[in-house]
Specification:
mainly alpha
Length: 145
């Protein structure tokens, strides 16, 4: 969904004022954070509407969004020197593993809240398992064409 916003909103509103790649990147990062923040805000509001506690989830999602944005936009350029030496790569692996753990904790916390809601709409464990198998198969087919 976000990718569609880029082409329907960000590009049309920014392409004419494009001056240099640094400014473009900065504008894009700001746009992405704003739009992804809106998505997170809508999710949190829906959780509140369902009567779910959101303080801990808000904290986890805020950190997850910040880490995700950093990982997507800056992580590897900021670690370009570390990539060149074994010790640096080992440290990066530890850091990335910690991020994976944090993302998994945020996902688990959200799952604990949303799965019962999904089940109430008839989304069964079998349906969930089937969807997971299909997503993994699609992912594998893209990695091994």
């Amino acid at each position: 969904m976000f990718i569609h916003l880029i082409f329907l909103d960000f590009y049309p509103n920014n392409i004419k004022s494009f001056k240099n790649s640094t400014e473009w990147t900065s504008d894009f990062v700001a746009y992405e954070e704003k739009e992804l923040g809106k998505t997170m805000g809508r999710l949190l509001q829906k959780l509140k509407d369902e009567g779910q506690p959101t303080e801990e989830v808000t904290s986890l999602l805020t950190v997850a969004l910040q880490k995700r944005n950093w990982l997507a936009h800056s992580y590897f350029s900021q670690h370009s020197v570390e990539l060149t030496v074994q010790n640096g790569r080992s440290q990066m692996i530890k850091e990335l593993q910690a991020m994976i753990e944090m993302f998994m904790q945020a996902t688990a916390k959200l799952d604990n809240i949303t799965k019962p809601i999904a089940r109430s709409y008839g989304y069964t464990e079998e349906m969930e398992a089937k969807a997971m198998v299909e997503m993994l198969a699609e992912m594998n087919s893209k990695q091994n064409p």
